[in-house]
């Protein structure tokens, strides 16, 4: 996925943040789960907000996030 985007390109994710599931799908997920996958590919969260148009059963459990691919992903770990 990261190879398809130019540096500073963006992707949008619709995250269904299910909790308390004994099995899935959907599986229990958090924003951190998404970060653990996308950060090593050079993506950082540019914006995250509630999905205001989620269907009633999912209201409050969906987030829309905009992720930006950093021009130099090696700088992401230098601050840690």
What can you tell me about this protein's structure?
- The chain is mostly beta strands and about 80 residues long.
- It has one domain (about 1-70).
- It has one helix at about 30-40; strands spanning about 10-15, 45-50, 60-70.
- Strands 1-3-2 form a three-stranded antiparallel beta sheet, with helices on one face.
- The longest helix has 8 residues, at about 30-40.
- The two termini are about 25 Å apart.
Compile the SSE list and pairings.
Elements: E1 10-16, H1 31-38, E2 43-50, E3 62-69
Antiparallel strand pairs: 1-3, 2-3
Summarize the model shown.
The chain contains 1 helix and 3 strands; from the N terminus they run βαββ.
Amino- and carboxy-terminal Cα gap: 24 Å
- Write down the domain tally: 1
Bulk shape: globular
H/E topology pattern = EHEE
Widest beta sheet: strand line-up:
1-3-2
Structural class comes to: mainly beta
Give me the number of helical elements: 1
Features of the shown structure:
80 residues; globular
């Amino acid at each position: 996925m990261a190879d398809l985007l130019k540096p500073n390109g963006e992707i949008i994710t619709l995250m269904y943040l299910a909790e308390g599931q004994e099995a899935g799908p959907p599986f229990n997920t958090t924003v951190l789960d998404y970060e653990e996958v996308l950060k090593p590919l050079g993506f950082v969260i540019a914006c995250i907000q509630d999905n205001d148009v989620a269907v009633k059963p999912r209201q409050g459990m969906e987030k829309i996030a905009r992720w930006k691919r950093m021009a130099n992903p090696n700088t992401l770990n230098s601050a840690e």
